[in-house]
Amino acid sequence: MFHLFPHKTRKVAPKIVHNLSTNLDGRNFKYKFVQSPAAHSVRLRVSMQKGLEIIVPRRFHLDHAQEIVEEHQDWIIKQLHKLEQKKQLRDAHQLQDGAQMTVLGQPHTIKIIELPKGKKPFVKRVQKLEFSDDSAAVAGHEFHVYCDGTMKQAKAALEKYLRSLRS
């Protein structure tokens, strides 16, 4: 069979990744120095999953890694501080027993209650009451999350319950 435009396959060289560490802002931290055939210039990238990555063309030698870090030190420190703040916020908002959550403008406390194995998870919205001599007043709201005790199941049950409130 004759092809007018034969398909040429070009082999792409793999990325070369070096795990390095350096001292920056008085702290030791790890980063990846990635030599990529697809890179045309030096790029710095900071992410939650991978941390700091310095991506360079293949022609850059590993000896230049420290120079790049020093040259972009202020930017790197700023990005790492932002990343730490994001991680702290994420950790503060993790679903756990006693966590606070605002739903429909009202603060709720989350109570995770373990069910026996095989029982279906569910959520109950509970109003805490405060009693005086002649009256009772709402003192707060709670979500009682009944599940197997894992955060995965607790989160799924709470999400399902909150979606049902919108219906």
Give a structural overview.
The chain folds into two domains: 77 residues, no CATH class; 67 residues, no CATH class. Helix content is 26%, strand content 40%. The protein has three helices and eight strands, in the order ββββααββββα. The strands form two sheets. The chain has a four-stranded mixed beta sheet with strand order 1-2-4-3, covered by helices on one side. A four-stranded mixed beta sheet has the order 5-6-8-7. The protein starts with 15 loop residues before the first strand and ends with a helix.
Give a summary of the structure in a few sentences.
With 167 residues, this protein is of the alpha/beta class.
